């Protein structure tokens, strides 16, 4: 059910396909300081220096993917829009350890397990069933010492099922309250949230042996 006052997203793939066919960078990921700064915050929020196998759904044109690739030995990206996926492949073509696929989650969720799953700017666009299924798939796909990072815009938009704060509240209800994961980090600004959860509750200092 759509929140009151919001327009229900219809034909989501077609909506994003039209955006990315008209403009390879519809939100200014490549040009806006806001976006570059937010990506730097995301990278700084990851508790591990490197990850063996990461998954980033809703990769858009691959700008965040390019930064994540510097921290991952293998990175799988996907987007519901074929045009967006094509832009991402062009952006990431020089990185052989990155694979870009086309498909919508949770239906096209990849096989195998990951030690990093990044859910960035996607939680608002999934209806209740798809969102709940995505969180379930995240839990079952994450390694025991893995990391989930989520980042979302906090202001309402016309094509959202829920705002960014509601996205993160529901994530916390699943990851923390239901499965007992630890919230390792919460970075809150007027415009966006970044949160990190893990089944491994150790801080970075403990992981590095700086404290017991």
In short:
By secondary structure, the chain is an alpha/beta fold.
Specify the helix fraction band.
25-40%
Q: Which strand order do you get reading across the main beta sheet?
A: 3-2-1-4-5-7-6
What is the gyration radius calculated from CA atoms?
16 Å
What is the top-level CATH class? Answer: Alpha Beta
Q: Label the CATH architecture.
A: 3-Layer(aba) Sandwich
Integer count of domains: 1
Return the structural class. Answer: alpha/beta
Q: What does the main sheet amount to?
A: 7 strands, mixed
User: What is the oligomer described by this structure?
Assistant: single chain
The CA-CA distance between the termini, in Å, is 47 Å
- Kindly state the mean pLDDT as a whole number? 94
β-strand number: 7
Helix and strand sequence: HHEHEHEEHEHEEH
Shape type:
globular
CATH topology: the name is Rossmann fold
Tally of contiguous helical segments? 7
Description of the structure:
By secondary structure, the protein is of the alpha/beta class. The protein has a single domain, classed as 3-Layer(aba) Sandwich (Rossmann fold), CATH 3.40.50.150. Helices cover 34% and strands 22% of the residues. The chain has a 7-stranded mixed beta sheet, with helices on both faces.
């Amino acid at each position: 059910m759509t929140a009151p006052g919001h327009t229900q997203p219809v034909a989501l793939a077609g909506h994003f396909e039209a955006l990315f066919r008209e403009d390879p960078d519809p939100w200014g990921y490549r040009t806006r300081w806001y976006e570059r700064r937010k990506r730097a915050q995301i990278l700084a929020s990851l508790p591990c220096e490197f990850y063996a196998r990461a998954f980033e759904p809703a990769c858009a044109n691959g700008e965040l993917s390019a930064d994540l690739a510097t921290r991952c030995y293998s990175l799988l990206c996907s987007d519901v829009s074929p045009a967006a996926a094509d832009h991402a492949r062009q952006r990431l073509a020089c990185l052989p350890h990155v694979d870009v696929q086309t498909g919508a989650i949770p239906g096209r969720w990849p096989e195998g397990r990951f030690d990093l799953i990044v859910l960035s700017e996607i939680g608002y666009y999934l209806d209740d069933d798809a969102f709940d299924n995505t969180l379930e798939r995240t839990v079952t796909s994450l390694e025991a010492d893995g990391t989930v990072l989520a980042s979302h815009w906090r202001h309402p938009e016309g094509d959202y099922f829920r705002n960014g704060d509601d996205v993160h509240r529901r994530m916390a209800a699943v990851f923390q309250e239901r499965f007992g994961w630890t919230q390792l980090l919460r970075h809150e600004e007027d415009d966006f949230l970044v949160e990190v959860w893990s089944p491994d509750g150790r801080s970075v200092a403990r992981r590095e042996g700086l404290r017991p």
